[in-house]
Amino acid sequence: MARRMRNGLLVVVLVGAVVSAAAFAGAGANAQGTSSAASTSSAASSRPNILFLLTDDLAWNLVKYMPHVQQMRRQGVTFGRYFVTDSLCCPSRSSIFTGRFPHDTGVFTNGGADGGFNVFHSRGEEASTFAARLQSGGYLTGMMGKYLNGYRPAAKVDGKAAYIPPGWDEWDVAGNGYPEFNYTLNENGTLVRYRNAPSDYLTDVLATKGAAFVDRAAAQHKPFLLEIATFAPHGPYTPAPRHANDFPGLTAPRSPAFDEADLSDKPPWLANHPVLTPAQISNIDTSFRKRAQAVEAVDDLLAKLQSELARNGQLANTYIVFSSDNGYHMGDHRLTPGKQTAFETDIRVPLIVTGPKVPHGVTRNQLTSNIDLYSTFVRIGKKSVPPSVDGRSLIPLLAKKPPKVWRNAVLVEHHGPNTNPSDPDRPAAGSGNPVTYEAIRTPTSTYVEYVTGDHEYYDLAKDPYELANRASTLSTAQQQRLHSTLAALQSCHSGASCWKAARGK
């Protein structure tokens, strides 16, 4: 597949049938590539597989450079209002693994006393992941790529070298895989060093290992859960060598929030940011182009796995879930590249699902959250959801007729400012480093309470780019209602109580 830019538009030229049209349609159709009638019947009668592709720092504005992800949108359900519990890698991934908010996992940051792998492990959270739940129900489970910040493949944990957490049958995980080259994988307890040859490019290595896992599951006639968590497109935004010259002249999007003209209404951590310099804007454009190049290999990974599923007669029986751990701002509100804010650029991320009986080309705009993935995966695997899980299964929203009643708010939590010098996500100067806050996103607004006593409120129906902070214009009754919902969500500790708080009742 070749990709070129013409007049600023992405042109995709198919030079080889990576995935057949039948394979794409297989998310809900009968076509099974090269499978036999017997394998098709076997797939239809077994519990569904789950392929979860989780990217790192991928924002919505990169999906247009991923043709196979766009094809997923045409063949499945897109969640238009899907949010993360914290726009930061480790707390977000902890919520995904457990279905619980940061205030329940205890993971608010990427390291130190309130975050990172050490906190997640020391609190015993690894025994409560969706992988452990599905493995106990007979699923073959695989984890590949990035785990949690602070995990080191060679480290000794609980007296065991090359530690592998419970719940995983296949474990191919790196520590610092951000450069995509010169990394070490813990491959089922064996440390394997990869260098800098084109064949060592990490995203491609994960694609190959993922395809082998699909084959293994098919050979064992077992349903599987496979999470492939790429480091791309996280900085330093390293593309595969074959993509390094793509999209010449591509620049970052210029939304109305780009280099925002007036920040005087913003909270103190942001209000005095200077306008972007020409050098900063040039760096933003270069970084965005590299990010677009980096996600091309992720898109190729998806295509390879779809093709392998079709070859094994399993595509129609597999839920494919594509998402990101958090979003990313690039010039919005005068901020250089980063995350961790409560702005839409950072908290609203893609969630796209194809699979058995999933309707095609549908967008659901109900408020959903990454705490919902645990319950969704577990229910797909026909297992019960523990009452301690804060999230809600999304299976009803994957039906042709979704429920009319859903939640009215999602919670976002953040501890800051981030001053950890060893954190690869520590904000660079100018990228935004907000103090601790709690926020809710409702169907039409974002409301933020900072530990400093400052507030933000954006009417997204009138102000989708969050240019005007209207917190000072809220009536006492409006502010009290928002605070009450936020406080209820911030203090909930079970599926029932969190759902009640999210409903506003």
Task: Walk me through this protein's architecture.
It is globular, with a radius of gyration of 22 Å. It starts with a strand and ends with a helix. It has 14 helices and 18 strands. Residues 1-45 have low confidence and may be disordered. It has one domain (2-398): 3-Layer(aba) Sandwich (Alkaline Phosphatase, subunit A), CATH 3.40.720. The protein is α/β, with parallel strands linked by helices and 505 residues long. Helix 13 packs antiparallel against helix 14. The strands form four sheets. Strands 9-8-7-6-10-3-11-12-4-13 form a ten-stranded mixed β-sheet.
Keywords:
single chain, 505 residues, alpha/beta, Alkaline Phosphatase, subunit A, 10-stranded mixed sheet, 4-stranded antiparallel sheet, 14 helices, 18 strands, globular, disordered N terminus
Topology of this protein?
Layout: E1 2-6, E2 9-13, H1 21-25, H2 37-45, E3 49-55, H3 67-75, E4 77-79, E5 82-83, H4 89-98, H5 102-105, H6 116-122, H7 130-135, E6 140-146, E7 170-174, E8 183-187, E9 190-194, H8 202-220, E10 224-229, H9 268-271, H10 278-311, E11 318-324, H11 344-347, E12 351-354, E13 362-364, E14 368-369, H12 372-380, E15 410-414, E16 437-441, E17 445-450, E18 455-459, H13 476-490, H14 495-503
Parallel strand pairs: 3-10, 3-11, 4-13, 5-14, 6-7, 6-10
Antiparallel strand pairs: 1-2, 4-12, 7-8, 8-9, 11-12, 15-16, 16-17, 17-18
What would you say about this model in short?
This protein has 505 residues and is an alpha/beta fold. 29% of the residues lie in helices and 17% in strands.
